[in-house]
Write a structure and sequence with these properties.
69% helix, elongated, 51 residues, single chain, mainly alpha
């Protein structure tokens, strides 16, 4: 993903997961949006690699 950027097939999935995590982090009072962004991207990347 680092070399190919947006051309890599996993990039849109990971970015979508990051956005969903950031929105969830903004809504939840305990988690901040950067933590949600990182967690969402990490979960999306893990599920993408696991397949």
């Amino acid at each position: 993903m680092g070399r190919q950027g947006m051309a890599h097939p996993s990039t849109p999935t990971v970015l979508t997961g990051g956005v969903i995590g950031a929105v969830a982090g903004a809504v939840l009072p305990v988690v901040t949006w950067p933590v949600g962004l990182f967690a969402g991207a990490a979960i999306a990347l893990y599920t993408r690699v696991k397949r």
